[in-house]
Design a protein that fits this description.
Number of strands: 4
Strand content: 5-15%
CATH superfamily of the largest domain: Glutaredoxin
Number of helices: 9
Number of domains: 2
Radius of gyration: 18 Å
Helix content: 55-70%
Length: 234
Amino acid sequence: MSFRLYGMSSPNVVKILIMLEELGVDFHFEHVDLFSEGQFDETFRALNPNSKVPVLLTEEGQPIFESGAILIYLAERHDQLLPSTGSSRYDVLEWLTLQVATVGPMLGQLNHFTTYAPAGQDYSVGRYRREGARIYQLLNKRLEQVPYLAGDDYSVADIATLPWTDYIERQGLQKADYPAIAEWRQRLEERPAVQRARAFIADVQANDAKMFSQSSASARRRFLGLGEGSEEQA
């Protein structure tokens, strides 16, 4: 039995796809239609009560949710991309935790307010753009000092963070302000596993766009965290 990954084209799913490709393990992808509220289906909620993707179903049939937990599980199971002991292990865990606790949530909010929020959200956009710039500056400074986030070696910290740096210009910031991030991204994007994951997610993204166009206004509201209002409110 192979791994089963439940997801769509979000950065948190992309990081798991990269990890699976890096490990070279077999997996089956289950596309969850978040735009038709598939994440709120009772069958899916039995896998993740938080109604979020990704979820990994292990070869033994155990569901694991939260992308950070999935990365640690896969790294430890296959003894790759996360040192088992010593200070280098905690270097990786520090930068992985930073991604899970800060990089993802803050840049995710910036993505939301720059992409989906109605006009008149200047305070929110400004707040998250400033925080986004601070985070990118932090990552850039780190990558001026070391080739990978945790130091000399590629790790789950890099895998976790890479997809969240895809949107710099869309967020109203300038790539040229973060040259060390650009060099790091180029190194990672040259990896065959990252290229395979990117090719895979391109098809998933196309399906997501189709699902979004076919979804109801109320389903889109719920997906965007705007409540379960009527069609007229969307």
